[in-house]
Predict the structure.
Amino acid sequence: MADVLGLNDINHSDLLHDLIIIGAGPAGLAAAVYGASEGLDTLLIESHAAGGQAGSSSKVENHLGFPTGVSGQDLATGATRRAQKLE
C-alpha cells in the first residue's frame, strides 16, 4: 500500500505487520507507541517528517501528558524514540 501511495521508498512487500499506520502526526505516533508497547509488529509510514503539522509547531498545548505544553519537535522526537525502543 505504501508503495502504491508513494509514501515509502523501502520495499516491505515481503514482510507482514500486525499494525500499519499511515501518517506520523501526533495520533499516528501515539498509535505506534501503543502498538509497539503491546508487542505488535508496527510499521509507521510518513511521507515527510515525524510529527506532521504539529512537528513544526513551537508549542503544542493540547496533547496528553504535557500540561504546560511541549514543542512539536520534542513531541515528535520523544514519541519516535519510544516507539523504536519498544520494537
Summary: The two ends are 21 Å apart (CA to CA). Strands lie at 19-22, 42-45.
